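Its record is set out here:
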Amino acid sequence: MIRRLNVIKYVIVDLSLAPGFINTKYECFRPTPYEPLHNKKLVSLLLLLERKRMLDNEDKRSLSYRHAISAIKAYPRDIRSSKEAAKIIGVGQKMAEKIRVFLQTGTIDEAEELRTDEHFRTMSLFNKVWGVGVTTAKIWWDMGYRTLQEVLDNAKLTATVKLGIQLFPDFNEP
């Protein structure tokens, strides 16, 4: 089997990848849908892991997940193997290993555990409030708050954050 690689202005065309896929590190060169057309469950699990890294202040790891998720969302067919995934620019060896596990089991255990983790869900909720970052969300968690109503009733809030909590249902609508 002969594999031919063509290099065209920052874009590598690898004929073993899906036809028509623009395999580039420059995400702006690659059309990426808001909702993935393929690999939906994989993307949803990776988004949970990316959010966890972001909430843990692991900025570089979170960014790596975002790059991989963007590339996978743009991929025009279901990923068939971890070797295929590893050829996609933005998907590194660690991510390819997670994809291998996903393809074998249909899930990623760490992501599934996050769905029921009270700390993760609460921190995510707090962080979605307008004007609240990871640090403030952690302070609220450490103070024992578990709902936005508890925060609203008990915490000392700036006018911006108070308004962000009051308008949270509206701001959280897509």
